[in-house]
Design brief:
EC number: 5.1.1.1
CATH architecture of the largest domain: Alpha-Beta Barrel
Cofactor: pyridoxal 5'-phosphate
Number of helices: 11
Strand content: 15-25%
Catalytic activity: L-alanine = D-alanine
Function: Catalyzes the interconversion of L-alanine and D-alanine. May also act on other amino acids.
Strand order of the largest sheet: 3-4-5-6-7-8-9-10
Distance between the termini: 32 Å
Bound molecules: pyridoxal-5'-phosphate
Radius of gyration: 24 Å
Family: Belongs to the alanine racemase family.
Number of domains: 2
């Protein structure tokens, strides 16, 4: 399923929202990138816009991030980088997760930098030959995360092979990078070990003749907690979207503004008697006569079915989901005194900026026993993205 075309809404006109929407505040994206640029300086900022900009929309987020001082974009897949190029974005892009079926030729043709763990090297070189254009490569060292990247014992030979191809004019090693495993838990010792291994890997590459433009290992948590991990470039994802990478610190604590608000117009409000069951399994029973509100967002929209009593803000009050999350809808118990007529067409906000005590994606992450990354990324294409705050 493809996402509907994004609607970009100028701040100067009155807003008419779709009945359900993920509203993305591009001013918040710009603000967050400004915060990150300050904290990371003199290192530069790569805005990570993989997974459709963590669910926010890769192209509008990329444009806002570049306008606010990011100088690189990061994606997992070459196809994500090609989509940015197709939208006319010319900034440096790095794609780092490939398979033998990845289209390396298209990446080289589009000037997309390629992460390389080892096995890709021959394919990247073949693509460079085909395109008659040197590929730009960032060699990846696995300093301990155990995902992609060359292990330390393969690093020497990978660098040697890459330098040979560089000497033949088929590629340029422009970067060395790695990824951290526990930077969100600053008290853990493994980050020191990863940084030491990274410094060794960089030194070996430089000694072997790589004239590196960028050395990079920091993700969002390391930007805030490990200045010694900043090197030349930081790869920031979740913080661009205004969410905290730390369990014990909120976005506000870090000076970030959550960019996404998930909202819907209430579908129905009705009186029910005491002991009325709610949703599949009848896990919730009204404690007394009450008013139920029906919110047209469910797990097909990305609301986690496993979430336990996630928060929903309606008319300045925070309620909790009553009973199971269904495919298309959730129910909130508005209480014994709520007049159903007063709630007709009311707005229900599942999460947003957190201002005035409203719920956040971090609250939903706690309710679903997950991380805020997953909450925003999983909002499905059925929910139209609606952009505000475009004017710089
Ligand atoms: C290789 C790589 N770098 C950077 C990031 C950004 O991480 P964060 O969202 O914690 O800033 C990711 C995201 O998972 C990643 O996979």
């Amino acid at each position: 399923m493809t996402s509907p075309a994004p609607q970009i809404h100028p701040t100067s006109e009155p807003v008419r929202l779709p009945e359900r929407a993920a509203i993305v505040d591009l001013a918040a994206i710009r603000h967050n990138v400004g915060v990150l640029a300050k904290v990371a300086a003199p290192a530069r900022v790569m805005a990570v816009v993989k997974a459709d900009g963590y669910g926010h929309g890769a192209v509008p987020v990329a444009r806002a991030a570049l306008a606010a001082g990011a100088s690189w974009l990061g994606v997992a897949h070459i196809s994500e980088g090609l989509a940015l190029r197709a939208a006319g974005i010319e900034a440096p892009i790095l794609a780092w997760l490939h398979t033998p079926d990845s289209n390396f030729s298209a990446a080289v043709a589009a000037g997309i930098d390629l992460g390389c763990s080892g096995w890709e090297l021959e394919r990247i070189v073949a693509a460079a030959r085909e395109q008659e254009r040197p590929a730009r490569v960032h060699l990846k060292i696995d300093t301990g995360l155990g995902r992609n990247g060359a292990t330390a014992d393969r690093w020497d030979s990978l660098v040697g092979e890459a330098v040979e191809y560089q000497d033949e004019g088929l590629l340029r090693v422009v970067g060395v990078f790695s990824h951290l495993a526990v930077a969100d838990e600053p008290q853990r010792p493994e980050t020191d070990e990863q940084l030491a291994a990274f410094r060794d890997a960089v030194a070996l590459a430089e000694d072997a003749g790589c004239d590196l433009e960028v050395r990079h290992i920091a993700n969002s948590p390391a930007v805030f907690s490990r200045p010694d991990a900043h090197f030349d470039l930081v790869r920031t994802g979740i913080s661009v979207y205004g969410l905290s990478p730390f369990a014990g610190q909120s976005a506000a604590d870090l000076g970030l503004r959550p960019a996404m608000t998930l909202r819907a117009t209430l579908s129905q409000a009705k009186r029910v008697p005491a002991e009325h069951g709610v949703s599949y399994g009848l896990l919730y029973k009204t404690p007394g006569e009450s008013t139920l509100g029906l919110v047209p967002l469910g797990y097909a929209d990305g609301v986690p079915r496993v979430s336990d009593r996630g928060p929903v803000r309606i008319a300045g009050e925070t309620y909790r989901v009553a009973g199971r999350v269904a495919m298309d809808q959730i129910v909130v118990d508005l209480g014994p005194d709520a007049d159903p007529d007063a709630f007709a067409g009311a707005e229900a906000v599942l999460f947003g900026s957190g201002e005035e005590g409203g719920p956040t994606a971090e609250d939903w992450a706690r309710a679903a026993q997950t991380i805020s990354y997953e909450i925003v990324t999983r909002i499905s294409p059925r929910v139209p993205r609606f952009y505000v705050g475009e004017d710089a």
